[in-house]
Structure formats: C-alpha cells, structure tokens
Write a structure and sequence with these properties.
One of its GO terms (molecular function) is DNA-binding transcription factor activity. By secondary structure, this protein is an alpha+beta fold. It has helices at residues 5-19, 31-38, 42-55, 81-84, 90-97, 115-121, 152-155, 173-178, 198-204; strands at 58-61, 65-68, 75-80, 102-112, 128-138, 141-151, 186-195, 211-220, 225-233, 238-243. The strands form 3 sheets. Strands 4-5-6-9-8-7 form a 6-stranded antiparallel β-sheet. It has a two-stranded antiparallel sheet with strand order 1-2.
Length: 249
C-alpha cells in the first residue's frame, strides 16, 4: 500500500534535515511554498510539517513559522559500581560533573508486583512492592525516566519504605538498603532499545514513536534481589559510559 502523500513529503523534509540541507534553527519553507513545490494543497503540506513536529524534528512557533529543532548537547551517564557505592545520588553527581543542575520528581505507591517484576525480584505472584515513578531533570528540563520496584516484605515498617521520604530520602539504593541491614554486593543491567510509548514521549517532550534506550537494572545482596528498575533514556541526549572493575588477584 502506497504511503499517504503527506508522509512522502515528510520523508523528504526529514531527509533534508538529517543531511543538513535545513540546519538547526533554520525556518522551513511556508506551507504554501511546500504545497507549490510538491504540487499538493496547503492542507497536505501542513499535515507533512505536523508529522515532523510530532517526531521532534521541528518546532512550530505561532505567528512565526516552523523551525528545525536544534539537537540538545549529549551528556554522559556513568554506569559504575564504584560510583554507585560512594553514597548519594549517582544521577545528581553526573549532572554536577557536567555543570548541570540535576533533580527529580517522584511518586510512590504500593502495588501488586507485575508479572515481569516478580521474576526480577524473586517474589511471589501478587506480592506487594513499592513502585516509584521518577522524572529526572537537568536544569529543569526532563531528561530521563525511571520506574523502580522494591519488595515490601523487606522495607515495610522501616525508615526507607518510601524511597523519597524519610531521613534517607534521595540517598541512592545502596545507602538506603544499608540502613536496614541489606548489604548490596552487585548490580546487573540489561540495555535494550524500543519506541517510547505515548506517555513516555509526553513526559520527556519527545516526538511520538521516538526510539529510547531502556536500562533494566537490578540490585542484589548475597541472598536476593532487593530493587529493580526500568530506566528510559533518550539517546539524542545521553550516552552511557560503563566503568568495569578488573580484579587481577
């Protein structure tokens, strides 16, 4: 089946942006100019431009026109066990190292563990977990999402039951778990990529369907997993740097 005309026009304009024919901050031709170039009506040209707005390639400014979106600077997220074990927030430390003001918003609630999470936390189906959803920010702009799960059979009734409330709020999983006698000894991560769902795209201010990196991270004590999370990272804003310890003994 042939692609709709507006999508074919969007394909052409997208390629021009990617190859630099239209540079960052440059104004796209008007709807009428595009309609004349491609031999279509202004409505079809407008739909093509709107497609690029939805994908995050261009920004529409009321009364001014549509402009190529400048790429944000790519920052680094360091994935290092040594860094995570020093205490405090690794994310905030990464932002501070790059002269960016890091912060986050979060909400926590007790829920039955989703099926995939029961496997990752080694809990029974239906076991209660504390789910915390984060939106991380850099200079007040959303830059990363995370949804974490902790088994309430470990944390219920303790000072760390709410990750972002109480005397140890915001101190990071390793330090928080240490407060209740859970000594984390290693962490594992699996990195994949997929299109962002609509909610993720809206929270990160991305175009619908933008591909994101997903880090599936789990922390373990000697006996069991104690926290797992899905971290959503836009690849046009961050690169992942892994520091791997080498034991030569």
């Amino acid at each position: 089946m042939a692609r709709p005309t507006y999508q074919r026009i969007a394909d052409t304009l997208r390629q021009r942006i990617i190859t630099g024919d239209y540079g960052p901050g440059e104004r796209l031709p008007s709807r009428q100019a595009l309609a004349d170039e491609f031999g279509v009506g202004p409505r079809v040209a407008a739909d093509a431009v709107q497609q690029l707005v939805a994908e995050g390639y261009v920004l529409a400014r009321t009364g001014s026109g549509t402009y190529v979106r400048a790429k944000p600077p790519v920052r680094r997220l360091t994935r290092s066990w040594y860094r995570e074990s020093r205490g405090g927030s690794p994310f905030r430390a990464d932002m501070a190292a790059q002269a960016v003001r890091g912060g986050w918003e979060s909400t926590s609630e007790s829920v039955p563990a989703p099926e995939a999470i029961t496997d990752r936390l080694a809990v029974e189906v239906g076991a209660e977990v504390m789910r915390t959803r984060y939106t991380f920010t850099g200079d007040d702009e959303p830059v990363m999402l995370s949804t974490s799960y902790e088994p309430l059979e470990i944390t219920r009734g303790t000072t760390i039951v709410l990750p972002e409330d109480g005397p140890h709020a915001g101190r990071g999983v390793v330090e928080r778990m240490r407060q209740i006698g859970q000594r984390i000894v290693h962490a594992g991560e699996i990195v994949t990529a997929r299109p962002a769902d609509n909610e993720e795209a809206d929270r990160l201010r991305l175009g619908r369907g933008t591909v994101v990196m997903v880090i599936q991270r789990t922390y373990y004590t000697e006996d069991r997993p104690v926290e797992t999370a899905d971290i959503v990272v836009p690849p046009d804003r961050y690169e992942l740097a892994y520091m791997i310890p080498v034991n030569q003994d």
